[in-house]
């Protein structure tokens, strides 16, 4: 299994833009330049359009070994219009993407898939899980029912748009140290707890492969792990329906029990149904794992940001943030 010499992660879509955030050096004092921002200078420069935010996630991961780089798009945001706009702002060529990986079949993660393929003129593999296209809807607390919100994400539609679906529950090696986690085992008690399924109660619903209605446990959720030589593991989550700590533990099963240098993505702690104490429990678990860089994004919730606000290891997320680990980009 290869390791990356280095990796650059660019936040293409996130819930927030903020031109006033500072660059941050590595908390380890290492000479890799850990966090840079699309800041005030860029926002005020009329050469650039300002980047946009939306309620979703998309990362560009560029990992290299020697002269060779692989580029992975992890999730594609909610609409595709923001992804297209931001890729233009940051000067990213959509045709340079080698793989797309979709964390799970919720619209804030897959929604930009067809818009993305509108911009490319070649076939690109799309890693996904077989449950991602099962019909899903939500029952709200006030009795309202959503539409089937993932009807635009069938493997057939992806193929028609120009993608090549790679449907698996297993981990995929995407090259130079980048792996999908595959389906994530849920062993951490506070992340696994779920009340019994009662049809008609508020929550997420899914029609199973057997045609029966069930609670949508989002079993399709995959994370991404990047194994960087002399640095450790960088773990990315989409929404972390499977739990951030479970995602890290799954990453360890894929690439070995190496130190976790950074974790970033949706932490699933801002959901109204996630117990408030899970914020502290998650942060304690990350501290125990000695995670050096923690960037909660998207669905992580204000409680999580408040909890970590004065922590040296915390990175406030924003569109245009770039994190760099390991050797310089070739
Ligand atoms: Fe999400």
Question: How does this model look, in words?
Answer:
The strands form three sheets. This protein has an eight-stranded mixed sheet with strand order 2-17-1-3-4-5-6-8. The chain has a six-stranded mixed sheet with strand order 9-10-13-14-15-16, with helices on one face. The chain has one domain (about 5-325): Ribonuclease Z/Hydroxyacylglutathione hydrolase-like (Metallo-beta-lactamase, Chain A, 4-Layer Sandwich). It has helices spanning about 40-45, 80-90, 105-110, 115-120, 155-160, 190, 245-255, 275-290, 300-310; strands at about 5-15, 35, 60-65, 70-75, 100, 125-130, 135-140, 165, 175, 180, 205, 215, 225-230, 230-235, 260-265, 295, 320-325. Helix content is about 20%, strand content about 25%. It is globular, with a radius of gyration of 19 Å. It contains nine helices and 17 strands. It is α/β, with parallel strands linked by helices and about 325 residues long. Bound molecules: fe (ii) ion. Fe (ii) ion binds near residues 239 and 299.
- Briefly note the CATH topology name: Metallo-beta-lactamase, Chain A
Largest sheet: 8 strands, mixed
**Count of helical regions:** 9
Classified by CATH, the class is: Alpha Beta
Structural class: alpha/beta
What small ligands are held by the chains? Answer: fe (ii) ion
Low-confidence segments: none
Q: Overall pLDDT, averaged?
A: 95
Corresponding CATH architecture: 4-Layer Sandwich
The outline comes out as globular
**Beta-strand level of the residues, as a percent range?**
25-35%
């Amino acid at each position: 299994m290869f390791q990356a010499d280095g990796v650059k992660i660019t936040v293409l879509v996130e819930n927030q833009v903020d031109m006033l955030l500072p660059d941050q050096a590595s908390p380890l004092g290492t000479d890799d330049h850990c966090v840079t921002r699309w800041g005030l200078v860029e926002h005020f420069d009329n050469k650039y359009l300002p980047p946009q935010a939306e309620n979703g996630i998309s990362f560009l991961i560029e990992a290299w070994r020697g002269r060779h780089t692989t580029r992975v798009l992890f999730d594609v945001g909610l609409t595709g219009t923001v992804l297209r706009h931001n890729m233009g702002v940051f000067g990213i060529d959509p045709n340079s993407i080698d793989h797309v990986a979709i964390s799970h079949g919720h619209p804030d993660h897959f929604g930009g898939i067809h818009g993305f393929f509108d911009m490319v003129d070649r076939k690109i593999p799309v890693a996904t899980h077989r449950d991602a296209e099962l019909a899903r809807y939500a029952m709200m607390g006030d009795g309202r029912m959503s539409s089937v919100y993932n009807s635009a994400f069938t493997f057939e539609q992806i193929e028609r748009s120009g993608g090549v679906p790679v449907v698996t529950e297993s981990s995929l090696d995407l090259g130079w140290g980048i792996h999908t986690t595959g389906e994530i085992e849920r062993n951490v008690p506070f992340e696994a707890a779920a009340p019994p399924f009662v049809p008609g109660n508020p929550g997420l619903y899914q029609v199973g492969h057997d045609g029966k209605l069930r609670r949508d446990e989002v079993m399709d959720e995959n994370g991404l792990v990047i194994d960087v030589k002399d640095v450790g593991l960088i773990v990315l989550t989409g929404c972390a329906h499977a739990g951030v700590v479970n995602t890290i533990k799954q990453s360890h099963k894929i690439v070995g029990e190496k130190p976790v240098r950074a974790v970033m993505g949706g932490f699933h702690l801002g959901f109204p149904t996630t117990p408030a104490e899970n914020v502290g429990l998650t942060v304690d678990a990350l501290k125990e794992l000695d995670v050096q860089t923690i960037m909660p994004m998207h669905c992580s919730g204000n409680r999580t940001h408040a909890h970590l606000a004065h922590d040296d290891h915390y990175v406030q997320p924003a569109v245009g943030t770039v994190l760099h680990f390991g050797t310089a980009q070739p």
